[in-house]
Design goal:
Rossmann fold, 3 domains, 6-stranded parallel β-sheet, 575 residues, single chain, alpha/beta, 17% strand, 22 helices
Length: 575
């Protein structure tokens, strides 16, 4: 068997059915082998799109996503996508071509030290020097990517190794993996779980703060069960959206810089924070010294490096969220809880300070997302980054995990479109919608060709304000409206662009056109791009300024009081 054939055999053993890639000189032998294989290959139009598509596939399916690129610029074009997966703990295996082993170090054509470049943004990386290494490398790569705190692994494959023939022992693909120094803790320490249970039993104002780790571990069922058992309200991070149903009585929605007012207030007023699978990032712990300063903190995370990194917990528990939540439920099942007074306070905040906008002032993005939710409530939503991302997080009603696919830690513009392609490949029977900004759309619009040519009928909704919206919002609020190079008003016709790629293009400029356009988009089994010309200077609210405490909330003055109730706490009002 050749090295290339061994790679494909390894992928088959790992259950891989689809890869996302772009061929080139250094992976020609591998692509020649793919030609005769049963593996589905999705040809992207840019290698970054391959990494994001593999990432989106992994988020929707819970399986390892695979992408392939050639050496040199092909490999470096994967870097942003690999970093994105690393920041959000997404299992991806990236396979890159490399110059022959005899040429490594000689500055050969399209040679780059991709294992060195990606060292800080992968869980591990391999440079294979002999074909016989391939079976155990494939086995280890998938094991590392999918266990512990999940993340990307890179395999660099020289061209001569791809054609090298060797005697394969197929048992090598299935041997148990034993790696010195890599033994993720999955079961929480019993004493720490007992301490956590004691804190929960003694709390009067608990809040469960859930993140992407809940989704990664498949712990949503346990999260709901524990919340209902103890009666604690639940708020999520951006990455945790979908882990707890938004329509649940105990749901507070998203917390943080653009989170709901009532979630922020609950965190600030709590006497116990049960943090599950979160990293206390600076969009939530905006001011770590003021974060839940009157609360005891229980922090559950599978990565010991996250414990105490930002917030020092009173009870740290290292392990898998699903296992630890189940252990807490078992320990607390016979306890009695009465948080009715706290529940009434939180319910009062929810009633007084709902997410609101002024629907009477032009075509609003919030209205568009509400209508998308009404017409396609079971859709999988991917997003770009910026205002479109926050509106999608706020106004679509997510009821299950793995339905909100977004770039969290890295904040990658251009992520949503290729991620939607990966998501649709992973969930072909679901409606997949990319909620995009016009700036982000232009970064990866060529992947519309991938969707069209691959018969992957995603729907792209461009919230087009002809600005780099979130940056412009900051310039408005904090830089005296000095809109330095954020006005991207251009002559680009997105309808014609979509049609040029072979997709269906539509433009919506009026409120009455929104529902008919969405209905048509969802009725046809084709790639659809809708250019929604929204109000240019619509802002995302509520908002907490970077570095400010969570309860110092910026609100618009322009929204009528009967539409957007005034906060009972003094807020920074913006003209």
């Amino acid at each position: 068997m050749t090295g290339s054939e061994a790679i494909l055999k390894g992928l088959e053993v790992e259950g891989v059915e689809v890869v996302f890639g772009y061929p080139g000189g250094a992976v020609l032998p591998l692509y020649d082998a793919i030609y005769d294989s049963n593996l589905r290959h999705v040809l992207v139009r840019h290698e970054q799109g391959a990494a994001h598509a593999a990432d989106g596939y992994a988020r929707v399916t819970g399986r390892v996503g695979v992408c392939i690129a050639t050496s040199g610029p092909g490999a470096t074009n994967l870097v942003t996508g690999i970093a994105n997966a690393y920041m959000d703990s997404i299992p991806v295996v990236a396979i890159t071509g490399q110059v022959p082993t005899t040429a490594i170090g000689n500055d050969a054509f399209q040679e780059i030290n991709i294992t060195g470049i990606t060292l800080p943004i992968t869980k591990h990386s391999y440079l294979i020097k002999q074909a016989e290494e391939i079976p155990h490398v494939i086995r280890e790569a998938f094991y590392i990517a999918s266990t512990g705190r999940k993340g990307p692994v890179l395999i660099d494959l020289p061209k001569d190794v791809q054609v090298e023939a060797f005697d394969l022992d197929e048992r090598d693909f299935t041997r148990p993996v034993k790696l010195r120094g890599y033994k993720p803790t999955v079961k929480g320490h019993a004493l720490q779980i007992k301490k956590a249970a004691t804190l929960i039993e003694g709390a009067k104002k608990p809040v469960i703060y859930a993140g992407g780790g809940v989704i990664a571990s498949g712990a949503s069922k346990e999260l709901i069960e524990l919340a209902e058992l103890i009666g604690a309200p639940v708020t999520t991070t951006l990455m945790g959206i979908g882990a707890f149903p938004i329509n649940h009585l105990l749901s507070l929605g998203m917390v943080g810089m653009h989170g709901t007012k009532y979630a922020n207030y609950a965190i600030c007023d709590a006497d116990l924070i049960l943090a599950v699978g979160v990293r206390f990032d600076d969009r939530v712990a905006t001011d770590p010294s003021q974060f839940a300063k009157d609360a005891k903190v229980i922090h559950i995370d599978i990565d010991p490096a996250e414990i105490g990194k930002v917030i020092i917990p009173d009870v740290p528990i290292v392990g898998d969220a699903k296992n630890i939540l189940r252990a807490l439920i078992d320990r607390l099942i016979d306890s009695r809880f009465d948080y009715s007074e706290w529940f009434n306070v939180v319910r009062g905040w929810k009633e007084a300070y709902p997410l609101r906008y002024n629907p009477e002032d032009g075509l609003k993005p919030q209205y568009i997302i509400e209508k998308i939710n009404e017409l396609a409530p079971d859709a999988i939503i991917t997003t770009e980054v910026g205002q479109n991302q926050m509106w999608a997080a706020q106004y679509f009603k997510y009821s299950e995990p793995r339905t909100f696919i977004t770039s969290g830690g890295l904040g990658t513009m251009g992520y949503g479109l290729p991620a939607a392609i990966g998501a649709k490949v992973g969930a072909p029977d679901r409606t997949v919608i990319d909620i995009s900004g016009d700036g982000s759309f232009m970064m990866k619009c060529q992947e519309i060709a991938t969707a069209v040519e691959g018969n992957i009928p995603i729907k792209v909704m461009i919230l087009n304000n002809q600005y780099l919206g979130m940056v412009r919002q900051w310039q408005e609020l904090f830089y005296d409206r000095r809109y330095s190079f954020t006005d991207i008003h251009s002559r680009t016709d997105f309808v014609k662009l979509a049609e040029a790629f072979g997709a269906v293009g539509m433009r919506v400029t009026k409120l009455k056109e929104v529902v008919p356009a969405l209905k048509r988009a969802f009725e046809i089994d084709e790639v659809v791009v809708i250019d929604f010309r929204i109000e240019r200077e619509e802002n995302v609210y509520p908002m907490v300024q970077a570095g400010a405490p969570l309860d110092e909330i910026i609100e618009p003055k322009t929204v009528p009081e009967n539409v957007f109730p005034t906060c009972e706490k003094e807020a920074l009002e913006v003209e």
